[in-house]
Amino acid sequence: MTSLNEACLVFPFSRDNANAISALLASLDIHPQLNKLAVFLPSLNQGISSLNEGALEFKKIILAFSVYSTQLDQVSHQIDQYRDLFKNKKLLVFAGGPHPIGDPFSMLYNGADIVCTGEGEITFTDVLARYISDQSLLDIKGIAILTHNKRLIKNPKSDFVDLNSFPSFSFKRGLIRPIEITRGCAWKCRFCQIRSKGIPVKHRSVSEILKYVDFTVKHFSQRRADIRFISPNALSYGSQDGKSLNLKIIEELLSGIRKLIGAEGKIYFGSFPSELRPETITPESAKLLKKYTNVSKLILGGQSGSDRVLELSDRGHDVAETERAVALLIKEGFEVDVDIIFGLPGEEDEDVKQTISHMEKLVKLGARIHSHTFLPLVGTPFASSKPGKINSQYLQLISEFQGYRLLSGQHEKQQEEAKLLASRRSEEKEIRRSYS
Predict the structure, then answer these.
(1) Smallest Cα–Cα separation from 119: which of 139, 101, 145?
(2) Which of 365, 247, 218, 238 is nearest to 302 (CA)?
(3) Per-domain boundaries in the chain
(4) Is 371 helix (H, G, I), strand (E, B) or coil?
(5) What pLDDT sits at residue 149?
(6) d(Cα 115, Cα 95) in Å, to the nearest integer?
(7) 4-154: CATH homologous superfamily?
(8) Using an 8 Å Cβ cutoff, are 69 and 377 in contact?
């Protein structure tokens, strides 16, 4: 049996994955045995050259990745490199995150030995503890594996995580990140991977959030503490159904934070990574944000200027709702960036014209456009849709808005990524036919 001091965890780290990695490491921090496990955090973007050589001294290694669909090629390549580097070691490649959850087969085929198919805190520590002690992994809840005889085994999901039972970030390792206040989303947008996780909407309690705010304040010591949050919809915090507003508990949260951080501290609520939905913007919610937060720029999910496309996407609001919310926020003195997705499934020329008109109206109201191109993400109802394409009618307006700094985003990069995602999915569709 391998002892704990003979094993280590190697978890390639990047800015994009920092929140997830910090949360998973936090689950190790409170584990009675794994809290002493050696952990190495090489740079995902710099590759294996950034790995501390000390990792090579261990006999058994768990190589873990948190993977977005757009990172799959990079991760798959690094898995091959690490396998070669650790060829004389016992190695387990573990993967979690949006891509493995959305399509376990794809992640397994692209190099992982075992993937997490749901929330990671319980499954991650269970896999590590069993692997280190040479126990079987086959009956662990919330995992999927590919057998040697080309069979996909996908176990039942693990128990849902109680956010209050796990730290939001790894304070022990100095990975102070935005505080996850809500997990899960009541809305079922057909382009979004959050729905693929099947997680009910749940919230971290005010008292627990304040505990991590206090940690953050003490970490920054004499420097100003900036408090940020992770939520698919910031103003859904405390809502029982994930849709209706519970402004009383939001005010309790924000006022409690303000008392802890003082006038010098900063509260960012409704900006990345805790954007807002249009229907949550009311005179009352806007005034609450104005009263307690320091956010000057809010991010609003509009997505399209066509009611037909919004309905096809199961977005849950219409164009008028977005325009109303923007007008209200601008009146209250906020800057507003509105997310618009080019090339959503079903978008036709008339929808493009309507979206152009919508964008022009938003800019006249005082907003800016945050542009995206539709990505056919695994695990979503739109996964098999054609890759998003920027209609030629958009190009002149994009150029004009960019010239006046009224539009920014990664729409060009995402258009290329969309093509790669669709191509990969087509290739894997043929390959998976040989698997049972």
Answers:
(1) 101
(2) 365
(3) 4-154, 172-432
(4) strand
(5) 86
(6) 5
(7) Cobalamin-binding domain (3.40.50.280)
(8) yes
pLDDT at 380: 95
Q: Which residues contact 225 (CB under 8 A, 6 or more apart)?
A: 213, 216, 217, 219, 261, 265, 266
CA–CA distance, 296 with 334 (Å, rounded to integer): 5
Joined tokens for residue 338: 């509105």
Residue 179 forms beta bridges with which residues?
A: 229
pTM for this model (two decimals): 0.94
SS3 of residue 251 by DSSP: helix
Tell me which residue of 17, 117, 120, 12 sits closest to 61, measured CA to CA: 12
Type of residue at 53:
E
Q: Find all residues with CB under 8 Å of 294, minimum gap 6, and list them.
A: 266, 267, 268
CATH (one of 3.40.109.10, 3.40.50.410, 3.40.50.300, 3.80.30.20) for 172-432? 3.80.30.20
Residue 296 per-residue DSSP state:
S
List, in sequence order, the alpha helices (H) in 180-299.
206-220, 247-261, 283-292
Instruction: Report d(CA 229, CA 250) in Å as an integer.
Output: 13
**Residue 93, strand partner residues:** 63
pLDDT in tens, 352-368: 999 999 999 999 999 99
- Could you say which residues of the chain have pLDDT below 50? none
